[in-house]
Amino acid sequence: MKIINSIVLLFFLGFLSNEAICQNIKKPNVVLLFSDDQRLQGTIHALGGNEVITPNLDALVKSGTSFTNTYIMGGSQGAVCVPSRNMLMTGRNLFSIGAEGQVILPQNVTLGETLGNNGYSTYGIGKWHNDKASFNRSFQNGDEIFFGGMSNNPYNVVLSHYDNEGIYSSKLSPSNEESHRKGLHSYPKHHTEVFGDAAVKFIENYQKEKPFFLYVAFKSPHDPRVLPEKYKAMYDTSKIKVPINFMPVHSFDNGELKVRDEMLAAFPRTPREVKVHTRDYYAMMTHLDEQIGNIVEALKAKGEYENTIIVFAGDNGLALGQHGLMGKQNVYEHSIKVPLIIVGNGIPKGKINDNFAYTFDIFPTICQLTDTAIPPTVQGQILFGKNINAREIMFYAYRNFQRALRIGDWKLIEYMVNGQKTSQLFNLRKDPFELYNLENNSKCHLKLTEMKTALTAQKKIYNDLN
User: Rounded to whole angstroms, how far apart are CA atoms 30 and 12?
Assistant: First the structure.
């Protein structure tokens, strides 16, 4: 009888063990795809970008939920993507990440850490524009890592292999052997393809012991927009439309008219030059879209697509001739509104969600979708669920001289440059391209007063001292 009982007990324990393994495997994988300098406006065909070719992003739109009022909170330096990526990884707002966001503070738990501590295998690929120590804190492994903001040549980009000790050099050594030992290397291939190929390789080699968190941070469509000619050839420059809000020059000093991004086109801006920049921007998007398609196909081939949450988002937008600007160092819609698409089992398909969201809401949302406890350091809000508390007010900032507020259809921007204060009031429902400043419209006096009061209140809430 004892022998029989022992056999039954072993069988029962084995059943529990196998059941636990099955439950672990059923926990969804997470693939977070992050683009560089991609505004929402015009960059995804299925979301109104009639001129751009993005069949794979279109398929994600059809397969999931697209959040069409997603914003970055702004930037505390000209390299806006530094604080933006910090906010993404920590789920914290612009005024709570420390200084200008270069270093992800040790006390701010990252998304990778959170998932890694909850049974996930975490893997990072591509651009990391924060401190190197936080990369290893966020990911248990990775490859083809680019530490920095941009490179002058999209080919032969200097990359790092993952180092368990977190020791990464910044430059290739004259000695190939020494460089190889330090993990530094480069390929005569475009960085978009390098990162895409690395992601596909990871998926193909995935062993299924744990669910995985794969972060792929592309460097496209950021300049320099050098890429295979076949993608540019897909666009007829003469047929690309000049933006409705194109201006040769910005109408006043916004405090950042001569920053690096603004020097990428001549002054005054011309329709012809803006068309060329836009064509190259679209071509970069099509090139990027192809890699996204490869990653999705790899998931399907591996049998993991149905058990994977795919999140696609961008770090900040770009002007490209709108308002006489070229860069992202401003708080106009073209520079702070970014794409966000979430695809996965149980997520509504083909749905457009126009609730206000920040990109730092992605962190808690992924936690919710993976049944992972949200760390107390996270300040973002979940985007799914019956009882979500949708945002009613959006607050934006750029450095210490631009602040903006959106409530419903109304948006106020205030500038303080060299002691000169300038205000802009827009009704985005009637004027989505922010062309008509209603500050001096007598019919909008009460609305202007209301918005200014609300802006002051938001500064206090976020402990914004500027």
Answer: 32
The mean per-residue pLDDT over the stretch 319-328 comes to 98
* pTM for the model: 0.93
> According to the model, what pLDDT value does residue 142 have?
98
Cα end-to-end span (Å), the chain: 79
CA distance 231 to 285: 9
Task: Report how far residue 402's alpha carbon sits from residue 257's, in angstroms, rounded to the nearest whole number.
Answer: 13
Strand (E) or helix (H) holding 241:
none
Half-sphere exposure of 153 toward its Cβ, with a 13 Å CA cutoff? 9
Q: Is the peptide bond before 221 cis (omega within 30 degrees of 0)?
A: yes
Taking only Cα atoms into account, the Rg of the chain, rounded to an integer number of angstroms, comes to 23
What mean pLDDT is predicted for residues 100-123? Answer: 97
Place of tokens 């192809």: 290
Of the listed ranges 149-153, 156-160, 387-391, the least confidently predicted one is 387-391
Using CA atoms, how far apart are residues 266 and 455, in angstroms rounded to an integer? 35
Q: Name residue, tokens 């973002």.
A: 380
Pairing status of strand 393-398 against strand 357-358:
unpaired
Q: How many residues does the chain have?
A: 466
Quick one: pLDDT at residue 183?
Answer: 75
SS3 58: helix
Q: Which residue has the higher pLDDT, 453 or 9?
A: 453
Q: pLDDT-derived band of residue 208, with 50, 70 and 90 as boundaries?
A: confident
Residues 91-123 as b or e (16 or more Cβ within 10 Å = b): bbbbbbbbebbbbbbeebbbbbbbbbeeebbbb
Q: What is the 3-state secondary structure (H, E, C) of 163-183?
A: CCCCCCCCCCCCCHHHHHHCC
Cβ–Cβ under 8 Å, residues 56 and 296: yes
What does the alpha-carbon distance between residue 164 and residue 140 come to, in Å, rounded to a whole number? 8
In the chain, what is the greatest distance between 2 CA atoms, to the nearest angstrom?
Answer: 93
Read off the pLDDT band of 364 (50, 70, 90). very high
Amino acid at 397: A
What pairing do the DSSP bridges indicate for beta strands 357-358 and 351-353? unpaired
What's the half-sphere exposure (Cβ side, CA atoms, 13 Å) at 181?
A: 6
Among 1-5, 50-54, 139-143, 416-420, the range scoring the smallest mean pLDDT is 1-5
Element (H or E) spanning 145, and its range? strand 141-147
Q: 410 near 404, Cβ under 8 Å?
A: no
